[in-house]
Structures are given as C-alpha cells and as structure tokens.
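User: As part of a screening pipeline, I want to sanity-check one entry by hand. Below is the sequence and the SMILES for zinc ion. Please return the complex as structure tokens so I can compare it with the automated output.
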Amino acid sequence: MSGRSTCPRCGSPISWIEKLRRGDRVYYVAVHYLGYTKSGGKVRKRVRRCYLGPEEYEYVTRLHRDLGIVLKGAIEERRVVHYLDAFLEALPRANVDRPTLVEILNKLRYLATRLEEYVRKLEELEKEEATRGG
Ligand SMILES: [Zn+2]
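Assistant: Here is the complex for your manual check:
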C-alpha cells in the first residue's frame, strides 16, 4: 500500500504501511515520514507510527466503513437526487462519445437493479414491523 490514503488514527497522510509480526499474529502500522536528522555523520529517518490493528482486513474494513459513511451521507441528504437531476439536465448538451454513454447506461441499469432489490427489502422490513405492531 502506498502514499495517498489518510490515517484512520490521526488523519494525516500515510507515507507507508508496515507489517509487524508478533508470534503468529500480524499487525499493521501506519508510518508518517517526518523528514530526517543528521547526527554524528549518520542520517536518521524521523517517523511517527500509528497502530492500525491486527490483520489487514481490519484496516481495509475501516477504510470501507469511512467510504460507507460518505455514501450514506450522500444518500440521506438527498444529494444523490440532486446529482441525478443535474446529470439528466446536462446530458442533452454534453459532448460524450457513444462508448462512454453505453458505459453510463450499463451502470445505471445495474444501479436500477440494486435499487429495486433494496426497495423490496425495505418494504419487507416495514411489513414485518407493521405485523409486530411496532
Ligand atoms: Zn497516524
């Protein structure tokens, strides 16, 4: 993993990730590079480390959770509806080639399928709650 991602502990950019092995467990540490110092003719790297957790999946899950929150916010604040409206409005004037339009079309079809599934699940949940008298 390299540079661009943000540290879930301190919010600073991660310079690199270190994998530490302790017995049979693997831990991940975010390293923040702070430059270097020279003393006694030796060059020493200055770094700050943030503990990310055991096993890579926890780190990945945390990143996904952050993404999930962003997307959830976009949906709950009705931003998605505004984006779609803006997209529809801009489409006739947009100078987009046919392959890109086909790609967008396929993504929208996929999105429509997922939305239908999701709406159906919500309807089932609402029915369940209604019969439970909640
Ligand atoms: Zn950090």
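Points to compare against the pipeline: The two ends are 47 Å apart (CA to CA). The helical segments are 56-76, 79-90, 98-131.
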